[in-house]
Amino acid sequence: MKKSTVMMFGTVSSAIVLAACGGAEADTKDQVIIYSNADDEAIEVMQTTLDKKGYEGKYIIQSFGTSELGGKMMAEGKDIEADVVTMASYFIESAQTSKSMFVELSSDLKPLDGGSTYALPILGNVGSIFINTDLLAQKGLPVPQTIKDLTKPEYKDLVSFPNILDSSTGWLLVQAIMSEYGEKEGKQVLADLIKNAGPHIESSGSGPIKKVKTGEVAAGFGLRIQAIDAKNEGLPIDYIDPTEGNFTLTESVAVVDKEGDEALASEIAKVIATEARADLLKQYPVALYEGEQVEEKYVPKYLKKWDTTLTVDLLEKHQTFFKEAQQ
């Protein structure tokens, strides 16, 4: 997942126009403008699907980092240039609450979480532990079953995880710790984990899997699908679902309220949420709608959900929790 923090979030990508329509000389006057924080792979699926469904030349997609796009949404509201946004669901939730910037959007698909009246989920990411099996054997380390296991002395300087201040993937870790252990014990667990990680706290959500792949560390926490892909490539990588829980972050699509001029934008948003969903599900194998089937290996053992709606305000509170554990 792209780097995403609130206020202090650092590195973000510049807006990059991703083609939809015949290059830079294309007239954008009558095109639907889509702002997206999605990974390149997800954007490629969206674009391919839209083109196949007859929308080639009718839209352009601009890619932003999560914090950059989130800042624009919260600052500009419905005055934002975009007609459609695909974005971390918690940012869409917060923007709608504070700015009332999205129109009604529905489809025949039924979200497993009940959904909302103004956004449709398009993909989900799940957190887990992953390990380098060769290095674990070389070091004589036990296979961790919990996040708390990674705080044991034998894992000193051999564990990596993403920083919640820089990466939304790190929020999956903090949610699991706080949900299982509460604030008091959880803060100690997190403090011990921070000490064990030492220099291996990463600003990128993909940082931990890279270090586990190279054998720089023996264990990490990050996106479950990254470890599955590495294992499928034949690398000595395995993934473990921590008993504290596999928490999920979703991304959704929403249509900006442009005072009644949203017909084409709504069509395009629905195509992204419905017609592109099959291919997005292959890349991000997390069931989001009733009736969706996911291969058994992709189904986490301890799938859990935070007990309140995820919002930017909640993320800020959990970031404060992390900073207090660092002290």
Automatic annotation (TrEMBL):
Signal sequence coordinates: 1-19
Highest taxon listed in the record's lineage: Bacteria
Keywords linked to the UniProt accession: Signal
PANTHER family per UniProt: ABC TRANSPORTER SUBSTRATE-BINDING PROTEIN, THIAMINE-BINDING PERIPLASMIC PROTEIN-RELATED
The protein's name in its UniProt record: Extracellular solute-binding protein
